Amino acid sequence: MKHLQLPNPTLRRVVHSKYIDIVGVILVAAICFYRGFHETIYYQGGIQFGVPLSGFSDYISKGAFPIGLLSTIGAVVSLLAARMIVKQQNLGNWIGVFTTVNSGIIDYLFGNHSAIITYPLTFIIAIIATKKWSEGEQVKKADTKYWLLILLAFIASYTLVFLGFYWFGTTIKNQFFKHTVAIIFGISLVGNISTAFKYEQTFLTWSFYNLAQIIKNVIQGNVANIVKYVFYIINSILTFFDWRINGDVKKTKGELG
Questions:
Q1: How far apart are the first and last CA of the chain?
Q2: Helix (H) and strand (E) counts for the chain?
Q3: Membrane spanning segments where (predicted)?
Q4: pTM for the complete prediction?
Q5: Domain spans of the chain, in order of start
Q6: What percent of the residues of the chain are helix, what percent strand, and what percent coil, each to the nearest 5?
C-alpha cells in the first residue's frame, strides 16, 4: 500500500497554500471597505449609499436591509468557497449554494431584475456540483459531453439574458452590450458546469472569465476591481495547471492495488 507520487508537488503546495487564502480574504475585504460597499442599505424601496455603521441599528430597526454589509460578507465567503474548490473540497460547493442565493437577492435589489431568471440556473448547477463531488467525481479531460455542455451553456445564457432584457423592459440601444453580457454569463455558466463535473479545463474557463472582468474594469477605470481580478486570474491559472498536471486529490492520495 503506497501513495501515488505527484508529478509536481511544489505546484500543489502553492495552490493549496493557506497564505493565498489569507491574502485573498484581506484583499477582497479591503477592496469592499475601500469602496464603501458596507455603507450601503436597501431602505423604503431604494438603495442608499454612504450610511455609516453607527447608524445601521437605527435604519435596520425601521426595516432597512443591510445590503452592502451582506454583499461584503458574501464576497469574502465566496472567495473562501472558491479556494476550497481549488483544493477540491466539496464544502466549497455547499457554501456556493448559499452564496448564490445571497448574491442573487443582492443583485436583484441593486436593480438587476434579470437575476430572478439567471440565478436559479446557477443555483441548480451548484446543487449538481455538491452531488457529483460527494459521489466521488474526479478530475478528467474534456470529452464529448463537455463540448455539448458548453454549447448548451451559451444557448441558455443568450436565451436568459435576452429574455431578461425583454421581460423587464430594459432598453439598450447598443446591441454589443447585450452580446457582451450574454457571453460573460455564458463563460460563467461553463465555469460552473466544468466545476460540477471536475474537468481539467475548469480553471482555464475561469481564467477567461477573470480576464473579461479585468478588461471591463480597465475600461471603467475601476482600479480596485482590477487588483481583485488580477488575484483571481493568477489563482485560476495556477489551479488550471495543478488540476491538469497533478490531477485529482483523492486519486493522488489513493492507494495502488
A1: 7
A2: 11, 2
A3: 20-37, 63-82, 116-134, 146-168, 180-199
A4: 0.88
A5: 9-252
A6: 75, 5, 20
